[in-house]
Recover the amino acids of this structure.
């Protein structure tokens, strides 16, 4: 079973991005993966803004990434790109922090007009961090995610297969790249 | 004369980006333009991280942008793109905050390998803010900027003409788009 | 009055891209501009594929660009980017072929999911050609363009204002950058 | 052993791109892979320019891609992006032509300033074709490739390890994703 670290780049405490990510985590745990999660907004704001990679909570997150096999990187789309909050955290990572890792990019947005922001905007950043395998990006329209009272989400029926396929591509890559003992 | 607002997206208090920007401001003032400057890192960190567009200092910066004719947007290049700190501020702006404005994108970086990060990464974000005219991006290699003891900069002789041309393209656009009274 | 050169990058003789471009040309001529048009597909195929910039018809197109004040660059969106046919022609141009020129990027596509292909994909290429002013890109959904029997087009009412605004931004820039005599 | 199809997007018959690709093919064959190669420039020019996906030679290339496990996509960098010749061929492929395939993007260019053209420009196009795994892009400076009289190439010593690593990442992915019988 793989170790997965999830990064939520939404500044909102009640975002669809966060809810979607919780759902992904549920699927990963159900498959036996060990998952640790970070909301970038929970890190000390002044450490983020002043780029303190050695502040305790930032350093702990960096260490978790170092020991993870896979990463789920989730962001809302703002101004035709990933959130600044996500990037301010990625900027704190060592140059090849994603080496030997599989990455699943996820985004939520208000319009399909933002779809290419993941592949044109986020993917080159993830590549520069040395990611071995960035599986197909998964973009969800806000209106196709319903937040239920218990904090879980319900996705529109028609997008469910693509959602399952995105998670499956990620776990398949984790399995195929697992260290052979 | 035009009103210009400069935005420095470097998290470092002693960055080459900041020094270069001070030099640009000197040139603009010498031409009679009125310049106001923002270091994003001087805004309250928790307002940035929590996306509080109505916090007093953030709101004041947004108002200054609204009344500016031109913007200079400067960033170091990290992880093949603009800094997260710059983007976290841009994310706080209204959707068409750059409408009717001329924008000069500036970056400093350690290698020419980062050159395209401005045109491929930053420009689409500036476009999404509705900028009327984004003049040619100007990228400076760190090693061609010398920080002098008095806080000013000296640029390598061979890049001086391109630097002048970038500023001239910006002020030329400001002049041509000046409101006709 | 300005000289405008239009470039159609669609490989199809009956494309919506071509029809839209004819409509743009009509507007420009009605404003008194002098317009010359190129369908890249009309150039000799072997000159394009073998990169013969000095072949007579290619050289004539390059000369027309050199003497133009403004360019309209139109392309369908294929595989999340501009057409290869458009790029094969742009590859034949001298390095700074668009210097001192205003450019209007236009695209047609089947889905809003392709919208960012212009700003992320085409704009950096136009920038590399030295364009002075690339005005706001204009993207039209195929289904909002109706081809009329006489070869003209009719646009959906709701997009008409944005279409007019895109052309107006282009002609406004041409006027403001006109050589002063 | 895997089936690999290589695509050369250079319009020049004596290009460094072609020579580098021949060298890659040599390494792949030495490892026992079965390799088929296409120079896009050898396809009938009028079929490319008129987008005839069903022309015999184009259809044969599409069929070879369909049966390949991996693809090497090589291009010179022109105007801050992949060549138009490469894209004109990619435009002819079915929408998900790269599904279930591993892709190695290769480029040659005159300056490191073009490095990001692969990750920002080409990779989103390869993603749109449904590629399962696009391994790390490999960019080679023209001046580090020497063409030897026998048509082979010699790479500068210092880049040799990165070159080997790029090929190894590709063949490792091919092996890990091999159909299990």
């Amino acid at each position: 079973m793989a170790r997965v670290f999830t990064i939520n780049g939404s500044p909102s405490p009640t975002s669809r991005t966060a809810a979607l990510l919780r759902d992904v985590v549920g699927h990963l745990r159900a498959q036996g993966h060990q998952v640790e999660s970070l909301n970038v907004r929970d890190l000390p704001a002044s450490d983020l803004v002043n780029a303190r990679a050695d502040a305790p909570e930032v350093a702990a997150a960096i260490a978790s990434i170092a020991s993870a096999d896979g990463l789920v990187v989730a962001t809302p789309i703002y101004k035709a790109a990933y959130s600044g909050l996500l990037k301010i955290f990625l900027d704190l990572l060592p140059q090849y922090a994603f080496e030997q890792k599989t990455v699943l990019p996820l985004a939520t947005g208000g319009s399909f007009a933002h779809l290419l922001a993941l592949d044109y905007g986020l993917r080159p950043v993830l590549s520069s961090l040395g990611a071995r395998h960035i599986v197909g990006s998964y973009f969800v329209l806000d209106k196709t995610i319903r937040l239920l009272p218990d904090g879980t989400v319900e996705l529109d029926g028609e997008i469910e297969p693509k959602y399952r396929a995105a998670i499956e591509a990620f776990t398949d890559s984790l399995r195929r790249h697992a260290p052979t003992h």
